[in-house]
Amino acid sequence: MKNRMNTGSNLLLAAGAALISLFMSGSLFAQKPAITEAATGAWEFTVYLDDREIGFHHFYLAATGETRQLQSVASFEYRLMMIPLFRYEHKNNEVWHGNCLQSITSRTDSNGKTFRVDGHRSAGEFRVSATSGEESLPECVMSFAYWNPSFLEQSMLLNTQDGEFLDVAVSEPILEELDVQGDKRPAYRYRLEAVDLELDLWYSPDREWLALESEVQGGRKLRYVLNEGPVGEDVEPGSSLETSLADAGSVSARPGG
Q1: By the 8 A CB rule, do 146 and 209 touch?
Q2: Is the CB of residue 127 less than 8 Å from the CB of residue 120?
Q3: Torsions phi, psi of 64, nearest 5?
Q4: Per-residue pLDDT tens over the stretch 187-225
Q5: Are residues 246 and 148 in contact, defined by beta-carbon separation less than 8 angstroms?
Q6: 16 with 1: CB under 8 angstroms?
Q7: Residue 65: how many CB atoms within 10 A of its CB?
Q8: Distance CA 28, CA 5 (A)
Q9: Alpha-carbon distance 9 to 40, whole Å?
Q10: Where are the beta strands (DSSP E) in 133-217?
């Protein structure tokens, strides 16, 4: 995740910083993850470069008590005169207990360059094996988990594309009005910065993830626009997941989840 904006997410990739590197194709990971039928939460975004649609990034969450499984799949493709200039594919599976990542498996194809990340929590550490090598991290870490606003309280986050553990800075929220699925809604905007990554994230007053935007090379905007349909979580009042999201602001800056 190194060129401003990967999947998302952080990946973005997410996912952090590599999703902001942009653009993906739909061949390897275009199918929905198997978790979708059991999902208790879903965020399905169409991705645009300025006003041009270039792909999608979908997130599906299944929760059982304090254990949560998150699967995400992204596929971008950028074409000029029908000629594909850049393709990017990313698939990620994470298991969480509370606000601590228990394991991660991700695979990425960035225009033919492949990346892998495999990590798991064990006594006293979170062990990461990636294309670039192996590393021991603190036992309780978080990735660029945009779907869980607890990640905004962290000072370091795991990049799900290349396995790097990055210093991050998050601004105080600013209340704005955001167009969501055709309706104007109040939303809190956060600015997140890490190395070459700068992105804005919007959350509802109920802390539902609503949108993502980042400036990429050439001053263009990479935008995540939420698809029509249910937003975020579908959980019973008082459940552990709902409580986790509502209390996200009280999570300390280091252990995360």
Answers
A1: yes
A2: yes
A3: -135, 105
A4: 999 999 998 889 999 999 999 999 999 988 788 899 999
A5: no
A6: yes
A7: 10
A8: 21
A9: 19
A10: 133-137, 156-158, 165-167, 169-170, 174-180, 183-194, 197-203, 209-215
